[in-house]
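Example 3.2
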Amino acid sequence: MTALVRAYIGMGSNLADPASQMRRARAALAAVPEVQIRATSPVYRSPPMGPVDQPDYLNAVLAAQTGLAPLSLLDTLQAIERQQDRQRGRHWGPRTLDLDLLLYGEQVLINERLQVPHPGVHERAFVLYPLADIAPDLHVPGHGRVDELLKSVSAAGLQRLGGFSWTESG
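Structure, written as tokens:
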């Protein structure tokens, strides 16, 4: 286990009851002993980034303290995706669950399995808006502060869901 690091994780779903998929993923991540969720953004509905012949997505961002190394955290996220029947088919296609390691402290990592900051984090409204809700002054290495990055993306089609609850009952 490494020193505790603040990591930001993007969540997305557009299949098989996306709201339930998001709740289950958050609960599964919270159950990992080496991960403590520190903040959860509101949920947003967004049009698909890729092929348009699929439902809109639900998206959110989690902030977590973790002692897991970046690749171990990635393995954990991918295991949760598999538990929720994630199928890796068409690029940017529909999915039950997508968990992306967006940021891992101030680190910049590039290898065959992982790139941090996540590519596109600085230009995707469905990532930046939820990220700004929980960490507006966060610095994205190589790109700048989240609140400044927001000024260069369009929120067209993005809708914050006011009635979403992270628990099934409430």
